[in-house]
């Protein structure tokens, strides 16, 4: 893909996002979730191209952003795990009586 094709693709995506926002479809949360993955990917490319410091920084920043975005999911999984553990303790306690 040459420079003009890449620029054309970027302009089409930006225009499509603007039209979608105008008609009431908001995809900001998808862009917010993709950004950490983009940073991590750029960091990996940087490391492969012998730019280890910048690549490492991008990976760390992307990982921290991703942890922040998925903190609610981690809390939900922790809550489910605690519930399952508590129920298993009740079941083991009633068998011993």
Explain the overall architecture.
The structure is a single chain. With 97 residues, the protein is mostly helical. Helices cover 88% and strands 0% of the residues. The chain has four helices and no strands. The protein has helices at 3-22, 28-48, 52-69, 71-96. Helix 2 (28-48) runs antiparallel to helix 3 (52-69). The longest helix has 26 residues, at 71-96. The N and C termini lie far apart (71 Å). The mean pLDDT is 84.
Give the overall shape, derived from the CA principal axes: flat
Number of helices: 4
Topology as a string of helices (H) and strands (E): HHHH
| Low-confidence spans | none
Average pLDDT, all residues? 84
Span of the ends, CA to CA = 71 Å
| Rg (CA only) | 22 Å
Task: Write a brief caption for the model.
The protein is mainly alpha-helical and 97 residues long.
Relevant terms:
mainly alpha, 97 residues
SSE arrangement:
Blueprint: H1 3-22, H2 28-48, H3 52-69, H4 71-96
Helix pairs in contact: 2-3
